[in-house]
Amino acid sequence: MKKLFDKQNKYGIRKLSIGVCSAVIGLSLLGAQTAYATEASEPSSQPNSAGAATPAVETPEPVMVDSAYAEASSSKENAPATNAVDADINTYWESAPTGDGEATTLTVKMSEVATVDKVTYTPRQVTTQDPSSPNPKHHAGLLTKGQIDYSLNGTDWEPVAPTRIDGDSTGRGVANEDKTFSLGANNNTRVINFQPVKAQYLRLTALESWANNLPARSGVVTAAQFIPSCVKPIEETPQV
User: Fold this and answer.
1) Residue 187: which of 169, 165, 206, 208 has the closest Cα?
2) Any idea of the CA torsion for 142, 119, 178, 221, to the nearest 10 degrees?
3) Alpha-carbon distance 171 to 191, whole Å?
């Protein structure tokens, strides 16, 4: 007598561009097993407890700072503005002394439009060699108060809104209500956090600096690092 069903195993497999994926599910019916192959798909949105789809989390892609571009209102010889974005803490930008009412600025550029929410600032790490200064071994040109503006085109500017200062051991690192920030007079690296903006240019305006034990504005500002933290903007997907 013939068997009502012949036992037969079937497997399906498909080669995908990201590798070979397969899943085999066995089902039992009347003592016989039939294997079905289902192709594994790429991760997709999963329903949450409310039944709505939860979108997959995207990892922001970093945007590079243009190390060939940096402009300053003034620079001393052998201390150009590009030293602030060359990723070398041993080099630095130093401004020339300014007159009363003159602003000292440093402008940097991202390789493309990016979302920016913080800047790493480090003053110069070498000491002044001017023997005529009151304290020739002190770090001159320490930024103590400033403002950061952002722009998409390098022409139209708006101030960022600082939220906090990280890395200021003096306790004087403060995000001020007037969209300026204050720093303690030391040569530590600080991170100036602000509300995220979409920009390709950032401009630092030095409002106060400290040098040679003179707490008033010195007119000289330095930066071994002024490097934005930036990523490609993530376009929001409209919810259906």
Assistant:
1) 169
2) 20
3) 13
CATH 2.40.37.10 is right for the domain spanning 65-231: no
Cβ–Cβ < 8 Å for 64, 111: yes
Which tokens is 164 given?
């906090």
Which tokens belong to 148? 């950061």
- Supply the pTM of this predicted model: 0.71
Comparing C-alpha atoms, which of 66, 96, 67, 71 is closest to residue 81?
71
> Would the CA dihedral through 191, 195, 200, 205 be positive or negative?
negative
**pLDDT, tens digit, for every residue of 73-102?**
999 989 999 999 999 999 999 998 876 667
Q: What does the alpha-carbon distance between residue 3 and residue 7 come to, in Å, rounded to a whole number?
A: 9
Number of other residues whose CB lies within 10 A of the CB of residue 54: 11
Report the chain (240 residues): mean pLDDT per 10 consecutive residues: 46 40 37 41 53 68 95 94 95 84 90 97 77 55 94 97 94 95 93 98 93 58 95 71
Q: Domain spans of the chain?
A: 9-43, 65-231
Pair of tokens at residue 144: 């103590």
Strands 190-210 and 142-151: antiparallel
Beta bridge mates, 231 = 62, 115
